Hints:
Bound molecules: S-adenosylmethionine
CATH superfamily of the largest domain: Vaccinia Virus protein VP39
Oligomer: single chain
Number of domains: 2
CATH class of the largest domain: Alpha Beta
Amino acid sequence: MLPSHxxxxxxxxxxxxxxxxxxxxxHFERRASLYRSLGLVPLVFRGARCLEVAVGSGQNSLYIxxxxxxxxxLVEPNPTGVREIRELxxxxxxxxxxxxxxxxxxxxxxxxxxxDIVICENWLGKAPGERMLLRKLAGFLEHHGMMVITTVPPxxxxxxxxxxxxxxxxxxxxxxxxxxxxxxVEMFQPHLSTITSMTRSATDWVQDNMINPAYFDLCITIPxxxxxxxxxxxALSTNPSFACDWRxxxxxxxxxRGFNRHMVHEYEAALHxxxxxxLLFSGPDRQMNRKLExxxxxxxxxxxxxxxxxxxxxxxxxxxxxxxxxxxxxVRQLGDCPGQIRSGLEAGLxxxxxxxxxxxxxxxxxxxxxxxxxETVYLSMIxx
Length: 384
Ligand SMILES: C[S@@+](CC[C@H](N)C(=O)[O-])C[C@H]1O[C@@H](n2cnc3c(N)ncnc32)[C@H](O)[C@@H]1O
């Protein structure tokens, strides 16, 4: 049976996805900025029938409910998440359309009508069952309805995959959940504190990214999604926004529209820029970028195998060697990338190769501490 977010969350009685914001207004401004870049300006929500699946804490849904949709349906199966959603709506003073909360998995959910807007963030990934659920979600859309999901480019996943390997090397995965949480927070808090716009606590981040077994499968790309849903949806926009379309609109009819083809082309040209959230650089050509992406996917799988070997008493040393070899290959493929990325990854490699397993060395300042990818990439689509 595949590891799932739900199994992990319910086993530990957690929902590690709470947003920390100074005020509701700040949170709403962030959400408005996100949706704006995805083509969902506030008027799109007004009077619309909206669905959000895998709602988590409910804080994101509150913004949508404040925009006067005709209805808002929330599907969330985790009892801890459900409790937090109820508390949020009981307490809020923001005028809103009251949501209908469905305490169910997406697998069990079957709506009685279609929706104008369907949203599902930070859940569905590349496990085969989840890709079927992506198609199920697209099937809920009205004609011309809009859907928002999240994708994870392997190049953006790379820095945190190095951290995941460090989490195995420096903190035995067979320790208790509480002990691992405590040690991993100590290891990675100094890295997280380099990020100025962080909205999650170190504890939630560690549990969801460094311990959650389902994390590896989040790595589904924009081309994967558009291939799965081809013929059903057309790509509209992304956040971060990387695609540029200089084509004259008068040429965009019939097969020439090719919005999905165009988005994939732009993604392949830009994917080196997902590696470091603070930098933009002109990178290798699309073919080299595709090779880089394949190497990053291999690295993810080697880290997964390393963790499995450590949990199941397998040959973890040889699994770690394979992960190190894959990461060395990526560093070689980087060519003329900015020095911060190269030195960051080399520092990560140094930590993976070290003889010591003293966890304090991971948190000590190094060129790797600041290296985080553009890991979550939102994609909006229109039902065609
Ligand atoms: C990483 S959290 C994301 C929460 C929220 N969307 C966000 O971005 O903050 C994943 C969410 O998926 C939910 N989930 C897991 N399995 C699910 C299922 N089978 N059906 C619906 N939701 C599910 C979890 O309970 C959790 O709330």
